[in-house]
Amino acid sequence: MGRKPRSFGLDFPAAANISNAINTAADCGFGFVSVPLAHPMLRRCANDQSVPVEKSKWMRTDLVLSANDWQVRVIPKISSWLELDSPNEGFRKRSEEVFHQELAFAHHLGIKAVLMDLRRRHNVNLARHLLSRLTSENSSYFRDEVWLQIPTTSRKMNTASCRNDVPEDDDEDKDDPWHWWDDLRLLCSSTMRIKVALEVTADLPSEEKLSRWYGEPIEVLVIPTSLFFTNKAGYPTLSKAHQRFIQKCAAREMTVLVTGGNRHASLRHYVQYMNHLFQSAELPPHIQCNLGFEDNLQVPLQPLADHLESFTYETFEKDPVKYTEYGNAVYQALLDRVPEAEIETNTQVIMVVGAGRGPLVTQTIHAAKKANRKIRVYAVEKNPNAVVTLMDLKKVSWGDIVKVVHCDMRKWKAPEKCDILVSELLGSFGDNELSPECLDGAQVFLKDDGISIPESYRSYVQPIMSMRLYNETRELKICDKPYYYKFEQTYVVAQTNSYWIAPRQQLFEFIHPNRSEVVDNTRYKRLKFVASEDSTLYGFTGYFDTTLYKDITLSIVPDTYSRGMFSWFPLYIPIMEPMSLKKGDPIELLFWRRRDQTKVWYEWCVQRPLTTGIHNINGRSSTIGL
Ligand SMILES: C[S@@+](CC[C@H](N)C(=O)[O-])C[C@H]1O[C@@H](n2cnc3c(N)ncnc32)[C@H](O)[C@@H]1O
What we know:
This is Protein arginine N-methyltransferase. One of its GO terms (biological process) is methylation. By secondary structure, the chain is an alpha/beta fold. It has three domains: 7-283, Divalent-metal-dependent TIM barrel enzymes (TIM Barrel), CATH 3.20.20.150; 310-424, Vaccinia Virus protein VP39 (Rossmann fold), CATH 3.40.50.150; 456-625, CATH 2.70.160.11. Helix content is 27%, strand content 26%. An eight-stranded parallel beta sheet has the order 3-2-1-10-7-6-5-4. Strands 16, 17, 18, 19, 21, 22 and 23 form a seven-stranded antiparallel beta sheet that branches. A five-stranded parallel beta sheet has the order 13-12-11-14-15, with helices on both faces. Strand 4, helix 4 (124-135) and strand 5 form a beta-alpha-beta unit. The chain is elongated, with a radius of gyration of 29 Å.
């Protein structure tokens, strides 16, 4: 199920009396109004330069509303006639002055954000003025946001895609409004305060082009009333294509702004319909499980080098899927190893290595009961604090069937060999919590024909466009570190604001037990992707899946996601500078897993279409302690 929009706004092309507009909107369920900042009766004439901008009377007094109402109930619109990139110098200058005057007044009113139309591609001068307003160190405007209202298609783009009697125009994509936005945000890359108010148009572009918007910082969905049909009962409804697109947007927190005249019995029906549409959205399982945690960067855990805390264990243990599947895997392995004829005589030795606070031990005991097989369990854990819990569980619940061993599994001198080695040492990238290194140490006490659960795991990567994740990375406050440091980390993050530029590909695989003569967990791979659309590469998403036993698997890869599981979020693997891509561009990613005596680390770079530096060379910014 999706979530409700954050709030609803009603757009007024003109509002002589703002209080009335707010009341009208509130009566129909709208929390705020969007109105031109300039009073309709006091509009300045665009070309009349006889009155200096600072002397023109254009705005009503702020006393018409309380400060709180200005802040909460109004999103003002910057005058739509402004052309900061006009070739006419006089007009351009006047536009610049009015632009600053209006932003200054909005700031005076304490307003959080202003709406501004973006109607064409060339906006370099606008970008410069926006940036200087929003990022200048001396500016008091640093907390304001500008929401650029951008349509999903332009007239030219529509004509090109809907008619075959007009000549092919190579420049069709240039009039794709996404490009208007892409150019401007690259120019303004040093601020996070410019966001998108996406105006949903009657004609929609291709699915691929539309889905590109999922990677953009959409703050508002602008829905014209002209999009609505009337259903048999007389209520507004949208076309299936519009419903699909809007429901996909429901994965993220968003505001809805309704614009245009009332075409139905009440404006309230638009609010009700949109609420219903958002809430009835079927979100994909990988998003559904992550609601509430979206797009917050976290440093990956290091359960080998650090001791996990009680809170972390408790969070894991709530996962309804992971432990059930481990239980199923142990059950199946026990059935396979002990034939019916031996159930009284054959006691299987099971070692749960990295037992934490014991959930896998409990699952193992349940599985043995269900399978009607005899077992003896060793619970091996190196975290002394978790061992306290294990000892207690042994006393109050498990009994003598379990032996608790406080030890690093790589150094343990086991008293006997085991039939089944159970572990969960997996990170978001599979091997990034050093499961391979730990299990290589532990496999010495696995019988030659013994089973490792998991038996294998694989990492995957996928190129993504996510300005949000990139900016979050860039804005991290990390003292005393060089600029590259933040971009040479991997981050655990539930991602809802990303566009997948190309399908994911498998990176590395690890198989247990590892019976190779020379055990080598270093890896190197070159992957080639192809950009599905013009886009901007901001890095890669990393996932993993694991085969616990035979066909019992766990996965955080979106298309094979283990429904309901929330133990792992994907990784974000940044690149230092965003890279503009054309549809069909090859993207070549080179990835290394390296190690020395004390640590493991990843290095990566992109080689096509442009070459980046090698990130994290020699683990200079991030490593995983052995
Ligand atoms: C991701 S937690 C999983 C805990 C538990 N099995 C669960 O599923 O809730 C990994 C556990 O393995 C332990 N661990 C990691 N490396 C270890 C090692 N080399 N020897 C023993 N325990 C280890 C950590 O302390 C941590 O408790």
